[in-house]
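Sequence in, structure out. First:
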Amino acid sequence: MSEQTKHAEHEHHIVGPMVYVAILLALLVGTALTVWASFLELGPWNPIIALAIATAKATLVVLFFMHVKYSTKLTKLTVVAGIFTFLILVSMTLADYISRAWGSW
C-alpha cells in the first residue's frame, strides 16, 4: 500500500466543541418540546408526536455522539441494517396485534 492510502485509513475527523454545544442545545430543546407536547390534548396524535421528537433526538445522538456522520460507509450500512431489522420486528409485532380478534371471546 502506498503511504497516502495508509494515512487515509487512519485519518479521524475532529469535531469542535461548539458542535457538541449545539447538539446539546438541540437535545434540550427536544426534551422541552416533548414535555410541552405531553401537556397538549391531541388525542391519538400524542404518541406519534412524542415518537417523532424522540426519533429526531436519537438521530442526533447517533450521528454526532456516536460519530456515525464521519464514519466509513460500512459503519453507516451497519446502522441502517440495524434500523431496518428493528422496523421489521416492529411491523411483525403490529401485524400480530392488529390481526387478533379482540372482543370475540
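Second:
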Amino acid sequence: MLVLNRKKGQSICIGEQIKITVVDVQGDYIKIGIDAPREVGVYRQEIYREIVSSNLQAAAGETGADKHHLLDELFKSQLETIPR
C-alpha cells in the first residue's frame, strides 16, 4: 500500500484519468473529491462488498461461508490490481 501525506486542497493522480483531491479535514474525518471517467466505478468499500456479495448470490447457490470466502478473495484480487 502506498501511503501519501496531503493537505487540504492538494491532490494525487492515478494514471492519466483519475484525480483525488483532499477537499476538507475535520478531526478524524476527511472529505475527498474524485475526478474519474464515468465508466470507472467509484464505491465506498462497504458498498462495493455488498454489490459483489449480491452478484455472487445471484450467480450461485453456495453456502454463506463459501460466499464470504469468495467475496474476500475477489476483494483481495481487486486490491492487487490497483496501480501503485
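Remark: The two ends are 7 Å apart (CA to CA).
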